[in-house]
Give the backbone structure.
Amino acid sequence: AVVSTQSRSRYWATPTTTKEPGDRAWVVGRAAARSTLDGSWVLLRKEQLMELASEEDLSQYLRFVEFLVGLPGALNSVPPAIQLVRVMSVFQVPSQPFLIRGVSVILGNLLHYFTSIPKINLTHASQSGYVSFYDFYNTFCETYEAEGYCDAVFAGFVLLPTRCDYALTYRRLLWVERVETLRMLRVSELSLSHVLRYPESDADMMTLYASSLKNGIKGLGRVIAIHHVHNFLFNPKIRKEQELVDLVKGFVTECADEVCVRRYGGVGKDNKIILKSEDEAMETGE
C-alpha cells in the first residue's frame, strides 16, 4: 500500500524521547521490526521531504528516524545503503534545513550511526530510486559545492564513502572530478580517523595525494594526503613499486609539507595533524 506523506506525519508529531509501550513511535517502530513488508516507507525521498509543511515537521521526522535506527530490528528490512541515501537527501532539500541547529544535531547523530556499521554495501543504493550510489554521490557533492557552506555534518557525509575499503570510484570522484568539493572540506563532524582506517592501495590515488601536496592543497584534503603519503613511504607492511616510491618522494621533496609527511604521527580528535618530534621520527626510520 502507498502511504502518503500526510498519513506518515501523524506518527512524527508524537514525541519519541520515551520507549514506553504506549508511545506511538514505539508502537510504529515495533510494528516495522515485526513486519514482513518493506520498512523503507518510513524513510522519505527528497521529493517527499520537500512536501513537509514546516521545519518542525522535518525535525519530528528526523527524530522519528533517529529513534528507529536505535531500535533493534526496526529497519532490518531496509539495507543500510538505502537508509544512508534517504538521510543524505535531507541535505538536498532547497530550504537547507541542515543549517538549523536542531536538525543539524540529529543529522550528526545519524552520521555517527552510519559510521558504527562496519561496512555499508553501497550497491544496494540502486534500490532507493537512483541508478547507482555513484550517481547520487556525484549529485550530493555538487550540492555541497553550491550550498553546503562548508557545514561540518554535510562534510562528514561527503567523506563517509571515501574510506579506502569502499570502491575506488568514490575517492576518484572527489579527488579528480569534484576538486572544488575537496577544496571546500575544511571541518567535519566525522573524525578523519574513521576515514583513514584503511591504507590506500591504488597507485594512481597515491600519485594524486603526493601531487596535491606539491600543489599546496589545504583543509582536510591536506590531512588525508599527508596521512596516505606518510603511510605509503614509511609503513614496511605496504607493498610498493620502487618507481612509484621515487615518484612520490620527488613530489614530497618539492612541497611545503615535507616535514609534516616525515614527522606525521596521526590525526587528533579535532582532525588536525599530530607531529612526532625529530628524534621520534629518526627512531622509526623516517
In short: Residues 1-22, 24-37 have pLDDT under 50 and may be disordered.
